[in-house]
Amino acid sequence: MKKILFIALALTSTIAFTQKDKKQQDRKSILEMEGCYKVTFDFAETFSPDTGYVKYDDYSSHAIEYVFAIEDEPDFISLQHILVVNDTFIVKHWRQDWLYENQTILMFDKDRTWNNKKISKKDAKGTWTQKVFQVDDSPRYEGYGTWVHVDGKNYWESTADAPLPRRELSVRQDYNVTKRHSRMEITKNGWNLEQDNEKIYRDENGKDQLITWEKGHEIFTRGEYNCQPAIDWWKENHRFWADVRTVWGETIAANKTMKFERKVDKKLMYEHLFGMGDEYTGDNYDQAKAKKEIQSIIEAYLNQK
Predict the structure, then answer these.
(1) Distance CA 209, CA 184 (A)
(2) CA–CA separation, 248 and 138 (whole Å)
(3) Alpha-carbon distance 164 to 286, whole Å?
């Protein structure tokens, strides 16, 4: 009996060690996305169930992008992206938060509407949720999956509904949901984000009609690029954007469903928040005043009828 108990305890200890070791591998892969990169964006529509569908033109672009951790805890890593255009012009870009065994997912429905959903402890076990935020730190999409480390490959896969990409937001009205089948893989020289996207029209009853598929590649390649302007900009602006994240976190947690107006006072939300951010830099920062104004702007978009 003692021998059986010893074996059982040994197996339990080994499993716990393996899980801990796997989690550290996961964290290492996520943190390996940090760096100064040249990133290329390439998208092409592929197949449509409608034989009469006319494909839109392919899309290609490139930029210098700085990716860095703004928070790094055992179960949580937050990576901020900043674009550097023509060596001097800064664009605060998207943000990706990674949560271990997270059970709350903010799911995109359609038409600027998101719903908070719960996933079971069983489904969340061993997974990492990637929460993606737009340039103004408003929600974009969230998905969860398991990091895989096999045959020298390190990758994560997930499927998530998302709004239209910014490159098509003002030119497309034939679809209102992008179902993103994403694969993020760490490479020798950086990392890749590969996408197989379904462009879907979702009606008022929740019925989906596939318009077309799209293939996407975002390739991040390390090099001797000048990311110092992004580093300097963040030093001047990080306090304001930390408070934007805090207010957003409180807003998301307090609402089961969120629907936003596209414009308030003829401006997009990022225009309001970026303009405010310009006023709260360096020694001019007043946290109490800033948080109050941030909350006021977000609520204005939530409360519009």
Answers:
(1) 27
(2) 7
(3) 35
